[in-house]
Amino acid sequence: MDSYNPFTFSEDPFEDSKELELEESQNTDLYSVLKPIAMYGFLIILGIGIVSIFMRPLPEVIVVVESDDINKSTENIKTVDTETLIPENIVTTTTTTIPVPILPTTTVPKIVNNDESKIVDSPSTFEILNPITYKDTIKKTVQVVAEKCARDIQYGQDATSLGTGVLISQDGYVVTNSHVIENCNGVIHIATINNVDETSEIKYFAKLIKQDNQLDLALLKIYKTIQGDITKNNFNYFDMEKDTVSSKKLILGEQVEIWGYPTSRGNGTYSLNINLTKGTLSGFEKDAGYKRGWLVTDADISYGNSGGAALDSYGRLIGIPTFGVTEGASWIGYLRSVDVVMDWVGDLDSEEDNFTSFPILEIKEFNPLNIPKYNRDDWNSWTDDDGDCQNTRHEVLQLESFVNVLFSDSSKCYVKSGKWFDPYNGEFLYFASDLDIDHFIPLYNVHLSGGYKWSTSKKTEFANNLDDPDLLIAVRNTSNREKSASSPESWKPSNKAYWCEYALDWIRIKHQWDLSATQDEWDALLEMIDTCPNDINYETAVNDSHKFTDQKIRIYERNG
Questions:
Q1: 492 SS3 class
Q2: 505: closest CA among 536, 479, 476?
Q3: Is the dihedral of CA 253, 257, 261, 264 positive or negative?
Q4: Nearest to 220 by CA among 359, 348, 366, 358
Q5: Residue 556: how many other CB atoms lie within 10 Å
Q6: What beta strand segments (E) does 214-360 contain?
Q7: What average pLDDT does range 322-332 have in this prediction?
Protein backbone atom coordinates (compact mmCIF):
# COMPACT_ATOMS: atom_id res chain seq x y z
CA MET A 1 0.00 0.00 0.00
CA ASP A 2 1.37 3.24 -0.97
CA SER A 3 2.30 5.60 1.96
CA TYR A 4 0.35 8.78 2.28
CA ASN A 5 2.19 12.13 2.21
CA PRO A 6 -0.05 14.99 3.24
CA PHE A 7 2.41 17.61 1.85
CA THR A 8 3.09 18.33 -1.70
CA PHE A 9 6.71 18.61 -2.87
CA SER A 10 6.85 22.34 -2.51
CA GLU A 11 5.27 22.33 0.90
CA ASP A 12 7.45 19.68 2.53
CA PRO A 13 9.11 21.45 5.60
CA PHE A 14 11.78 18.83 5.96
CA GLU A 15 13.29 19.67 2.58
CA ASP A 16 14.58 23.11 3.87
CA SER A 17 16.33 21.44 6.78
CA LYS A 18 18.16 19.15 4.45
CA GLU A 19 19.35 22.01 2.26
CA LEU A 20 20.54 24.01 5.37
CA GLU A 21 22.58 21.08 6.62
CA LEU A 22 24.22 20.80 3.23
CA GLU A 23 25.03 24.57 3.17
CA GLU A 24 26.54 24.56 6.70
CA SER A 25 28.68 21.63 5.73
CA GLN A 26 30.01 23.50 2.75
CA ASN A 27 30.72 26.69 4.86
CA THR A 28 32.62 24.70 7.44
CA ASP A 29 34.91 23.33 4.80
CA LEU A 30 35.57 26.84 3.42
CA TYR A 31 36.27 28.29 6.94
CA SER A 32 38.76 25.53 7.64
CA VAL A 33 40.69 26.54 4.53
CA LEU A 34 40.60 30.36 5.03
CA LYS A 35 41.28 30.53 8.80
CA PRO A 36 45.00 29.63 8.73
CA ILE A 37 45.53 31.86 5.71
CA ALA A 38 44.05 34.88 7.56
CA MET A 39 46.06 34.23 10.72
CA TYR A 40 49.34 33.96 8.82
CA GLY A 41 48.54 37.16 6.94
CA PHE A 42 47.80 39.09 10.17
CA LEU A 43 51.03 37.93 11.78
CA ILE A 44 53.05 38.99 8.74
CA ILE A 45 51.50 42.49 8.73
CA LEU A 46 52.01 42.88 12.51
CA GLY A 47 55.66 41.87 12.20
CA ILE A 48 56.27 44.36 9.39
CA GLY A 49 54.68 47.15 11.49
CA ILE A 50 56.81 46.43 14.56
CA VAL A 51 60.01 46.28 12.52
CA SER A 52 59.19 49.58 10.79
CA ILE A 53 58.65 51.33 14.15
CA PHE A 54 62.00 50.30 15.59
CA MET A 55 63.91 50.74 12.33
CA ARG A 56 62.63 54.21 11.42
CA PRO A 57 65.13 57.12 11.74
CA LEU A 58 64.86 59.54 14.67
CA PRO A 59 62.86 62.65 13.82
CA GLU A 60 64.79 65.84 13.36
CA VAL A 61 64.44 68.92 15.57
CA ILE A 62 63.08 71.66 13.37
CA VAL A 63 63.32 75.25 14.62
CA VAL A 64 61.08 77.71 12.82
CA VAL A 65 62.52 81.14 12.33
CA GLU A 66 61.43 84.20 10.46
CA SER A 67 63.20 84.75 7.17
CA ASP A 68 64.97 87.92 8.29
CA ASP A 69 66.68 86.14 11.16
CA ILE A 70 67.68 82.82 9.54
CA ASN A 71 71.26 83.86 8.99
CA LYS A 72 71.56 85.38 12.46
CA SER A 73 70.08 82.40 14.25
CA THR A 74 72.44 79.90 12.63
CA GLU A 75 75.53 81.85 13.56
CA ASN A 76 75.27 81.03 17.25
CA ILE A 77 74.78 77.41 18.23
CA LYS A 78 74.36 76.35 21.83
CA THR A 79 74.49 72.76 23.14
CA VAL A 80 71.65 71.94 25.47
CA ASP A 81 71.79 69.04 27.91
CA THR A 82 68.69 67.05 27.11
CA GLU A 83 68.66 65.38 30.50
CA THR A 84 67.26 68.70 31.75
CA LEU A 85 63.47 68.92 31.96
CA ILE A 86 62.21 69.90 28.48
CA PRO A 87 58.61 70.36 27.34
CA GLU A 88 57.12 67.61 25.21
CA ASN A 89 56.96 69.73 22.09
CA ILE A 90 60.77 69.61 21.78
CA VAL A 91 61.91 66.27 20.38
CA THR A 92 65.01 64.83 22.02
CA THR A 93 66.53 61.71 23.55
CA THR A 94 67.85 61.15 27.07
CA THR A 95 71.39 60.39 26.01
CA THR A 96 72.18 62.91 23.29
CA THR A 97 72.90 66.61 23.22
CA ILE A 98 71.22 68.57 20.46
CA PRO A 99 72.58 71.77 18.92
CA VAL A 100 69.90 74.43 19.30
CA PRO A 101 70.18 77.87 17.70
CA ILE A 102 70.19 80.80 20.13
CA LEU A 103 67.21 82.67 18.78
CA PRO A 104 66.40 86.34 19.15
CA THR A 105 63.14 86.84 21.00
CA THR A 106 61.51 88.03 17.76
CA THR A 107 62.20 84.78 15.91
CA VAL A 108 59.73 82.63 17.81
CA PRO A 109 56.49 82.16 15.82
CA LYS A 110 53.52 84.15 17.01
CA ILE A 111 50.09 82.89 17.93
CA VAL A 112 47.67 84.81 15.76
CA ASN A 113 43.94 84.82 16.36
CA ASN A 114 41.46 85.59 13.64
CA ASP A 115 41.21 89.04 15.17
CA GLU A 116 44.42 90.78 14.14
CA SER A 117 44.25 92.99 17.22
CA LYS A 118 44.94 89.93 19.36
CA ILE A 119 48.42 88.95 18.25
CA VAL A 120 50.26 87.50 21.22
CA ASP A 121 53.98 86.88 21.49
CA SER A 122 54.80 83.27 22.15
CA PRO A 123 57.22 82.49 24.99
CA SER A 124 60.83 82.92 24.02
CA THR A 125 63.13 79.93 23.48
CA PHE A 126 64.73 80.69 26.84
CA GLU A 127 61.39 80.45 28.58
CA ILE A 128 60.50 77.17 26.86
CA LEU A 129 63.81 75.54 27.74
CA ASN A 130 63.75 76.90 31.31
CA PRO A 131 60.31 76.24 32.85
CA ILE A 132 59.59 77.83 36.23
CA THR A 133 60.58 76.14 39.42
CA TYR A 134 58.55 76.45 42.57
CA LYS A 135 61.73 76.93 44.55
CA ASP A 136 62.39 80.28 42.85
CA THR A 137 58.81 81.44 43.23
CA ILE A 138 58.61 80.81 46.96
CA LYS A 139 61.80 82.83 47.48
CA LYS A 140 60.35 85.76 45.55
CA THR A 141 57.01 85.65 47.37
CA VAL A 142 57.07 86.75 51.02
CA GLN A 143 54.63 87.21 53.86
CA VAL A 144 53.96 90.72 55.23
CA VAL A 145 53.16 90.97 58.95
CA ALA A 146 52.09 94.44 60.14
CA GLU A 147 51.59 95.09 63.85
CA LYS A 148 49.18 97.31 65.78
CA CYS A 149 46.58 97.76 63.08
CA ALA A 150 43.27 99.39 63.98
CA ARG A 151 40.72 96.78 63.05
CA ASP A 152 38.03 97.22 65.69
CA ILE A 153 37.35 100.91 66.18
CA GLN A 154 34.31 100.24 68.38
CA TYR A 155 36.33 98.39 71.01
CA GLY A 156 39.65 100.07 70.38
CA GLN A 157 41.45 96.79 69.84
CA ASP A 158 44.56 96.53 67.70
CA ALA A 159 45.29 93.53 65.53
CA THR A 160 48.03 92.07 63.41
CA SER A 161 47.48 92.39 59.66
CA LEU A 162 48.68 89.57 57.43
CA GLY A 163 49.25 89.72 53.70
CA THR A 164 51.66 88.75 50.97
CA GLY A 165 54.28 90.67 49.00
CA VAL A 166 56.55 90.14 46.02
CA LEU A 167 60.24 91.02 45.91
CA ILE A 168 61.03 93.23 42.92
CA SER A 169 64.69 94.04 43.50
CA GLN A 170 67.85 92.35 44.68
CA ASP A 171 68.19 94.81 47.56
CA GLY A 172 64.85 94.04 49.17
CA TYR A 173 62.09 96.21 47.71
CA VAL A 174 58.69 94.57 48.19
CA VAL A 175 55.37 95.43 46.51
CA THR A 176 52.17 94.63 48.37
CA ASN A 177 48.64 95.99 48.71
CA SER A 178 48.12 99.21 50.62
CA HIS A 179 45.23 97.73 52.59
CA VAL A 180 47.61 95.14 54.09
CA ILE A 181 49.33 97.87 56.13
CA GLU A 182 46.52 100.43 56.28
CA ASN A 183 45.93 101.91 59.76
CA CYS A 184 48.90 99.98 61.13
CA ASN A 185 51.10 101.82 63.62
CA GLY A 186 53.48 99.07 64.62
CA VAL A 187 56.51 97.49 63.04
CA ILE A 188 56.38 95.70 59.70
CA HIS A 189 57.94 92.26 59.52
CA ILE A 190 58.75 90.07 56.53
CA ALA A 191 58.40 86.31 56.93
CA THR A 192 59.75 83.72 54.50
CA ILE A 193 60.01 79.99 53.92
CA ASN A 194 62.67 77.74 52.38
CA ASN A 195 60.36 75.06 51.00
CA VAL A 196 56.68 74.34 50.58
CA ASP A 197 56.56 72.07 53.63
CA GLU A 198 57.61 74.82 56.06
CA THR A 199 55.47 77.45 57.71
CA SER A 200 56.53 81.07 57.45
CA GLU A 201 59.03 82.50 59.91
CA ILE A 202 59.73 86.18 60.55
CA LYS A 203 63.21 86.99 59.26
CA TYR A 204 63.34 90.74 58.51
CA PHE A 205 62.20 94.24 59.38
CA ALA A 206 60.76 96.42 56.61
CA LYS A 207 60.01 100.13 56.18
CA LEU A 208 57.16 101.72 54.31
CA ILE A 209 58.58 103.76 51.43
CA LYS A 210 55.35 104.90 49.83
CA GLN A 211 51.75 103.84 49.37
CA ASP A 212 48.70 104.75 47.29
CA ASN A 213 45.31 103.89 48.72
CA GLN A 214 43.56 104.59 45.42
CA LEU A 215 45.66 102.07 43.52
CA ASP A 216 45.87 99.87 46.64
CA LEU A 217 49.64 99.57 46.32
CA ALA A 218 52.45 99.93 48.85
CA LEU A 219 56.23 99.79 48.46
CA LEU A 220 58.27 98.39 51.35
CA LYS A 221 62.02 98.11 51.85
CA ILE A 222 63.65 95.29 53.82
CA TYR A 223 66.48 96.90 55.77
CA LYS A 224 67.68 94.52 58.47
CA THR A 225 67.32 91.03 59.85
CA ILE A 226 65.38 90.16 62.96
CA GLN A 227 68.75 89.88 64.73
CA GLY A 228 69.53 93.49 63.80
CA ASP A 229 72.05 92.85 61.02
CA ILE A 230 71.98 94.99 57.89
CA THR A 231 70.61 92.95 55.02
CA LYS A 232 72.80 91.94 52.11
CA ASN A 233 71.63 92.74 48.60
CA ASN A 234 71.12 89.15 47.49
CA PHE A 235 67.36 88.59 47.46
CA ASN A 236 65.71 86.51 44.73
CA TYR A 237 63.24 88.77 42.94
CA PHE A 238 60.96 89.30 39.95
CA ASP A 239 62.87 91.43 37.48
CA MET A 240 60.35 94.09 36.44
CA GLU A 241 61.81 94.17 32.93
CA LYS A 242 62.44 90.47 32.24
CA ASP A 243 60.07 88.56 34.52
CA THR A 244 56.82 90.38 33.78
CA VAL A 245 54.21 90.38 31.03
CA SER A 246 52.31 93.49 30.00
CA SER A 247 48.54 93.18 30.09
CA LYS A 248 48.54 94.16 26.41
CA LYS A 249 50.01 90.74 25.57
CA LEU A 250 47.55 88.70 27.60
CA ILE A 251 44.57 86.86 26.09
CA LEU A 252 41.45 85.45 27.68
CA GLY A 253 41.68 81.86 28.78
CA GLU A 254 45.35 81.93 29.75
CA GLN A 255 46.29 80.07 32.91
CA VAL A 256 46.74 82.17 36.06
CA GLU A 257 48.61 81.05 39.17
CA ILE A 258 48.04 82.81 42.50
CA TRP A 259 50.82 82.50 45.09
CA GLY A 260 50.36 83.76 48.62
CA TYR A 261 49.94 83.09 52.32
CA PRO A 262 46.20 82.66 53.00
CA THR A 263 45.25 82.77 56.66
CA SER A 264 43.21 79.59 56.24
CA ARG A 265 46.50 77.67 55.96
CA GLY A 266 47.61 78.64 59.48
CA ASN A 267 47.00 77.77 63.10
CA GLY A 268 45.74 81.14 64.29
CA THR A 269 49.18 82.82 64.22
CA TYR A 270 51.21 84.52 61.52
CA SER A 271 53.02 81.25 60.78
CA LEU A 272 51.43 80.08 57.52
CA ASN A 273 52.05 77.76 54.59
CA ILE A 274 52.45 79.16 51.11
CA ASN A 275 49.53 78.35 48.86
CA LEU A 276 49.03 77.97 45.11
CA THR A 277 45.68 78.23 43.34
CA LYS A 278 45.09 78.14 39.61
CA GLY A 279 42.46 79.52 37.30
CA THR A 280 42.05 81.29 34.01
CA LEU A 281 42.24 84.88 32.88
CA SER A 282 38.56 85.76 32.65
CA GLY A 283 38.52 89.41 31.62
CA PHE A 284 39.88 92.95 31.80
CA GLU A 285 38.57 96.18 33.32
CA LYS A 286 39.59 99.81 32.96
CA ASP A 287 40.98 101.57 36.02
CA ALA A 288 43.33 104.40 36.99
CA GLY A 289 43.64 105.56 33.39
CA TYR A 290 44.70 102.12 32.14
CA LYS A 291 42.69 100.14 29.60
CA ARG A 292 43.58 97.01 31.54
CA GLY A 293 44.08 98.35 35.03
CA TRP A 294 42.43 95.25 36.45
CA LEU A 295 42.83 91.65 35.35
CA VAL A 296 39.87 89.43 36.23
CA THR A 297 40.31 85.75 37.11
CA ASP A 298 38.34 82.84 38.51
CA ALA A 299 41.36 81.73 40.57
CA ASP A 300 40.74 81.86 44.33
CA ILE A 301 42.16 84.86 46.22
CA SER A 302 41.80 84.09 49.92
CA TYR A 303 42.37 86.33 52.94
CA GLY A 304 46.11 86.76 53.31
CA ASN A 305 46.76 86.37 49.57
CA SER A 306 46.49 90.13 49.01
CA GLY A 307 49.69 91.54 47.58
CA GLY A 308 50.95 88.18 46.36
CA ALA A 309 52.13 86.99 42.97
CA ALA A 310 49.83 86.40 40.01
CA LEU A 311 51.83 84.50 37.40
CA ASP A 312 51.29 83.09 33.95
CA SER A 313 52.16 79.48 33.15
CA TYR A 314 55.79 80.47 32.51
CA GLY A 315 56.26 82.02 35.95
CA ARG A 316 56.12 85.61 34.72
CA LEU A 317 54.47 88.22 36.93
CA ILE A 318 51.25 89.55 35.40
CA GLY A 319 49.64 91.21 38.40
CA ILE A 320 49.10 91.57 42.14
CA PRO A 321 46.10 89.73 43.71
CA THR A 322 44.10 92.47 45.38
CA PHE A 323 40.52 91.46 46.19
CA GLY A 324 37.68 89.18 45.22
CA VAL A 325 33.90 89.35 44.96
CA THR A 326 31.22 86.69 44.87
CA GLU A 327 28.18 86.63 42.62
CA GLY A 328 25.94 83.83 43.75
CA ALA A 329 28.06 80.70 43.68
CA SER A 330 30.65 82.32 41.40
CA TRP A 331 33.95 83.86 42.46
CA ILE A 332 35.67 86.73 40.67
CA GLY A 333 39.19 87.80 41.65
CA TYR A 334 40.81 91.10 40.71
CA LEU A 335 44.52 91.48 39.98
CA ARG A 336 46.21 94.88 39.79
CA SER A 337 47.92 94.64 36.40
CA VAL A 338 51.71 94.71 36.28
CA ASP A 339 51.55 97.76 33.98
CA VAL A 340 50.06 99.84 36.79
CA VAL A 341 52.52 98.42 39.30
CA MET A 342 55.59 99.16 37.17
CA ASP A 343 54.57 102.73 36.41
CA TRP A 344 53.71 103.42 40.05
CA VAL A 345 56.91 101.94 41.45
CA GLY A 346 58.96 103.99 38.99
CA ASP A 347 62.73 104.12 39.10
CA LEU A 348 63.98 102.05 42.01
CA ASP A 349 67.44 103.57 41.61
CA SER A 350 66.06 106.98 42.52
CA GLU A 351 64.07 105.44 45.37
CA GLU A 352 67.29 103.81 46.53
CA ASP A 353 69.13 107.13 46.38
CA ASN A 354 66.46 108.80 48.49
CA PHE A 355 66.22 105.92 50.91
CA THR A 356 69.80 104.87 51.52
CA SER A 357 71.34 108.34 51.45
CA PHE A 358 70.55 108.53 55.14
CA PRO A 359 70.65 105.97 57.98
CA ILE A 360 67.65 103.83 58.74
CA LEU A 361 66.54 104.14 62.34
CA GLU A 362 65.43 101.16 64.36
CA ILE A 363 61.65 101.10 64.61
CA LYS A 364 60.54 100.38 68.14
CA GLU A 365 57.22 101.08 69.79
CA PHE A 366 57.34 101.92 73.47
CA ASN A 367 55.03 101.66 76.43
CA PRO A 368 55.75 104.37 79.06
CA LEU A 369 54.55 101.97 81.73
CA ASN A 370 57.39 99.58 80.92
CA ILE A 371 60.27 102.06 81.22
CA PRO A 372 61.49 104.24 84.10
CA LYS A 373 59.64 107.48 84.69
CA TYR A 374 61.13 110.56 83.01
CA ASN A 375 62.74 113.13 85.31
CA ARG A 376 64.19 116.25 83.66
CA ASP A 377 66.51 116.84 86.60
CA ASP A 378 68.41 113.69 85.61
CA TRP A 379 69.61 115.56 82.50
CA ASN A 380 71.18 118.54 84.32
CA SER A 381 70.43 121.27 81.82
CA TRP A 382 71.74 123.94 81.91
CA THR A 383 75.31 123.57 83.21
CA ASP A 384 78.31 125.88 83.37
CA ASP A 385 81.18 123.56 82.57
CA ASP A 386 83.88 126.22 82.24
CA GLY A 387 82.81 128.17 85.32
CA ASP A 388 82.49 131.53 83.58
CA CYS A 389 78.95 132.11 84.94
CA GLN A 390 77.46 131.57 81.50
CA ASN A 391 75.37 128.42 81.40
CA THR A 392 74.64 126.39 78.27
CA ARG A 393 71.75 128.63 77.20
CA HIS A 394 73.89 131.76 77.07
CA GLU A 395 76.79 129.93 75.49
CA VAL A 396 74.49 128.92 72.62
CA LEU A 397 73.15 132.46 72.26
CA GLN A 398 76.68 133.75 71.80
CA LEU A 399 77.66 131.00 69.36
CA GLU A 400 74.62 131.50 67.13
CA SER A 401 74.45 135.30 67.03
CA PHE A 402 75.46 136.93 63.73
CA VAL A 403 76.67 139.98 65.65
CA ASN A 404 78.44 140.53 68.94
CA VAL A 405 75.94 140.09 71.72
CA LEU A 406 75.13 142.59 74.44
CA PHE A 407 74.86 141.42 78.03
CA SER A 408 72.39 142.40 80.70
CA ASP A 409 75.13 143.76 83.00
CA SER A 410 78.85 144.01 83.41
CA SER A 411 79.13 140.47 84.80
CA LYS A 412 78.48 139.21 81.26
CA CYS A 413 76.62 136.23 82.56
CA TYR A 414 73.36 136.81 80.70
CA VAL A 415 72.91 137.68 77.02
CA LYS A 416 70.45 140.48 76.35
CA SER A 417 70.46 141.07 72.60
CA GLY A 418 72.08 140.02 69.33
CA LYS A 419 70.94 138.73 65.91
CA TRP A 420 69.72 135.19 65.53
CA PHE A 421 68.09 133.31 62.67
CA ASP A 422 65.16 131.08 63.59
CA PRO A 423 64.71 128.38 60.88
CA TYR A 424 61.44 127.14 62.39
CA ASN A 425 59.80 130.40 61.36
CA GLY A 426 62.27 131.67 58.75
CA GLU A 427 62.96 134.99 60.50
CA PHE A 428 65.63 136.97 62.35
CA LEU A 429 65.18 137.80 66.04
CA TYR A 430 67.10 140.40 68.08
CA PHE A 431 66.16 140.03 71.75
CA ALA A 432 67.21 137.09 73.88
CA SER A 433 63.94 137.29 75.77
CA ASP A 434 62.13 136.20 72.57
CA LEU A 435 64.25 133.07 72.29
CA ASP A 436 64.33 129.60 73.78
CA ILE A 437 67.16 127.14 73.29
CA ASP A 438 65.46 124.09 71.85
CA HIS A 439 66.78 120.59 72.43
CA PHE A 440 66.38 119.58 68.81
CA ILE A 441 65.45 116.07 69.93
CA PRO A 442 63.31 116.77 73.01
CA LEU A 443 64.75 115.19 76.13
CA TYR A 444 61.54 113.32 76.86
CA ASN A 445 61.63 111.79 73.36
CA VAL A 446 65.27 110.84 73.88
CA HIS A 447 64.27 109.19 77.15
CA LEU A 448 61.55 107.10 75.47
CA SER A 449 63.78 106.24 72.49
CA GLY A 450 66.41 104.57 74.62
CA GLY A 451 67.96 107.41 76.63
CA TYR A 452 66.43 106.08 79.83
CA LYS A 453 69.22 103.46 79.76
CA TRP A 454 71.98 106.10 79.77
CA SER A 455 74.11 107.03 82.70
CA THR A 456 73.65 110.44 84.31
CA SER A 457 76.89 111.69 82.75
CA LYS A 458 75.76 110.72 79.24
CA LYS A 459 72.39 112.39 79.78
CA THR A 460 74.16 115.54 80.92
CA GLU A 461 76.48 115.43 77.92
CA PHE A 462 73.56 115.21 75.51
CA ALA A 463 71.52 117.95 77.20
CA ASN A 464 74.41 120.45 77.18
CA ASN A 465 76.25 119.46 74.00
CA LEU A 466 77.97 122.34 72.15
CA ASP A 467 80.02 120.17 69.79
CA ASP A 468 77.17 119.43 67.39
CA PRO A 469 75.70 122.74 66.12
CA ASP A 470 72.36 121.06 65.44
CA LEU A 471 71.72 119.57 68.88
CA LEU A 472 70.81 122.89 70.51
CA ILE A 473 69.21 125.66 68.47
CA ALA A 474 67.88 129.15 69.27
CA VAL A 475 64.28 129.61 68.11
CA ARG A 476 61.29 131.77 68.92
CA ASN A 477 60.07 130.81 72.39
CA THR A 478 56.45 130.34 71.34
CA SER A 479 57.46 127.77 68.71
CA ASN A 480 59.62 125.86 71.17
CA ARG A 481 56.77 125.68 73.64
CA GLU A 482 54.33 124.54 70.96
CA LYS A 483 56.75 121.81 70.02
CA SER A 484 57.33 120.81 73.63
CA ALA A 485 58.30 117.10 73.66
CA SER A 486 56.66 116.29 70.31
CA SER A 487 58.22 114.22 67.57
CA PRO A 488 57.60 114.97 63.85
CA GLU A 489 54.32 113.09 63.54
CA SER A 490 52.81 115.51 66.08
CA TRP A 491 54.66 118.74 65.35
CA LYS A 492 56.54 120.18 62.37
CA PRO A 493 58.01 123.65 61.90
CA SER A 494 55.62 126.09 60.28
CA ASN A 495 58.40 126.92 57.79
CA LYS A 496 58.06 124.07 55.27
CA ALA A 497 61.26 125.11 53.52
CA TYR A 498 63.10 123.83 56.59
CA TRP A 499 61.33 120.45 56.75
CA CYS A 500 63.99 118.62 54.76
CA GLU A 501 66.91 119.66 56.96
CA TYR A 502 64.82 119.20 60.09
CA ALA A 503 64.08 115.56 59.19
CA LEU A 504 67.63 114.75 58.09
CA ASP A 505 69.15 116.31 61.22
CA TRP A 506 66.65 114.43 63.38
CA ILE A 507 67.65 111.13 61.77
CA ARG A 508 71.37 111.88 61.98
CA ILE A 509 71.28 112.80 65.66
CA LYS A 510 69.19 109.79 66.62
CA HIS A 511 71.45 107.52 64.60
CA GLN A 512 74.63 108.89 66.17
CA TRP A 513 73.23 108.52 69.66
CA ASP A 514 71.73 105.07 68.95
CA LEU A 515 68.13 106.11 69.51
CA SER A 516 65.06 104.42 68.00
CA ALA A 517 61.96 105.85 66.34
CA THR A 518 58.34 104.81 66.19
CA GLN A 519 56.72 103.91 62.89
CA ASP A 520 54.58 107.07 62.94
CA GLU A 521 57.66 109.14 63.64
CA TRP A 522 59.55 107.50 60.78
CA ASP A 523 56.67 107.95 58.35
CA ALA A 524 56.53 111.65 59.21
CA LEU A 525 60.27 112.00 58.66
CA LEU A 526 59.99 110.38 55.22
CA GLU A 527 57.14 112.74 54.38
CA MET A 528 59.34 115.72 55.26
CA ILE A 529 62.27 114.33 53.27
CA ASP A 530 60.03 114.21 50.20
CA THR A 531 60.19 118.04 50.24
CA CYS A 532 64.00 118.12 49.91
CA PRO A 533 65.33 120.47 47.20
CA ASN A 534 68.22 119.32 45.02
CA ASP A 535 70.84 121.16 47.06
CA ILE A 536 69.86 119.74 50.47
CA ASN A 537 70.78 116.16 51.34
CA TYR A 538 72.02 114.19 54.33
CA GLU A 539 75.52 115.61 54.05
CA THR A 540 74.66 119.24 53.30
CA ALA A 541 72.02 119.33 56.04
CA VAL A 542 74.80 119.15 58.63
CA ASN A 543 75.88 122.59 59.85
CA ASP A 544 79.62 122.97 60.40
CA SER A 545 79.05 126.18 62.32
CA HIS A 546 76.48 127.30 64.86
CA LYS A 547 75.47 129.96 62.35
CA PHE A 548 73.50 129.17 59.20
CA THR A 549 75.27 129.90 55.94
CA ASP A 550 74.03 132.71 53.69
CA GLN A 551 72.93 130.10 51.15
CA LYS A 552 70.72 128.31 53.67
CA ILE A 553 69.28 131.56 54.95
CA ARG A 554 68.23 132.41 51.37
CA ILE A 555 66.42 129.06 51.24
CA TYR A 556 64.78 129.25 54.66
CA GLU A 557 64.07 132.94 55.17
CA ARG A 558 60.49 134.00 54.74
CA ASN A 559 59.89 137.37 53.14
CA GLY A 560 57.02 139.06 54.92
A1: coil
A2: 536
A3: positive
A4: 348
A5: 21
A6: 217-225, 255-260, 275-287, 290-297, 309-311, 317-327, 330-337
A7: 82
Phi and psi at residue 294, in whole multiples of 5°?
-120, 140
CB 520 within 8 A of CB 185: yes
Distance CA 397, CA 393 (A): 6
Give the residue among 365, 318, 359, 361 at the shortest CA–CA distance from 338. 318
43-52, 101-110, 223-232: least confident range = 101-110
Inter-residue contact 466 to 386 (CB < 8 Å): no
The sign of the torsion formed by the CA atoms of 453, 455, 460, 465 equals negative
How many angstroms separate the CA atoms of 453 and 36, rounded?
105
* Predicted pLDDT at 183: 82
Q: Which domains does the chain have, with CATH numbers?
A: 67-129 (no CATH), 132-356 (2.40.10.120), 368-556 (no CATH)
CA-CA distance, 81 to 347, in Å (whole number)?
Answer: 38
Cis peptide before 382 (omega within 30 of 0): yes
CA gap 40, 44 in Å, rounded: 6
CA-CA distances (angstroms) from residue 161 to 21, 76, 179, 286, 362? 92, 52, 9, 29, 21
> For residue 125, what are the β-bridge partners?
none
Asked if residue 483 lies in contact with residue 441, where contact means CB atoms within 8 angstroms, the answer is no
| Nearest C-alpha neighbor of 322 from the set 337, 330, 334 | 334
Read off the pLDDT of residues 169-197 as tens digits, 9 standing for 90 and up.
Answer: 998 999 999 999 988 877 899 999 999 99
Decide if 299 contacts 258 (C-beta within 8 A). yes
What is the C-alpha radius of gyration for the chain, rounded to an integer number of angstroms?
40
Residue 423 neighbours by CB under 8 Å, 6+ apart: 473, 475, 493, 495, 498, 501, 502, 548, 552, 556
d(C-alpha 128, C-alpha 122), whole Å? 10
152 SS3 class: strand
What letter represents residue 19's amino acid? E
Cα(420)–Cα(430) distance, rounded to whole angstroms?
6
Q: How far apart are the C-alpha atoms of 378 and 463, rounded to whole Å? A: 10
β-pairing, 330-337 with 290-297? antiparallel
Would you tell me how many other CB atoms lie within 10 Å of the CB of residue 226? 13
Residue 520 sits at φ, ψ, to 5 deg, of: -60, -40
Cα three-residue angle 130-132-135, rounded to 5 degrees = 125
**Would you say 470 and 509 are in contact if contact means Cβ atoms under 8 Å apart?**
yes
Taking 80 as the threshold, does the pLDDT of residue 59 lie above it?
no
- Residue 406: phi and psi, rounded to 5, are -110, 145
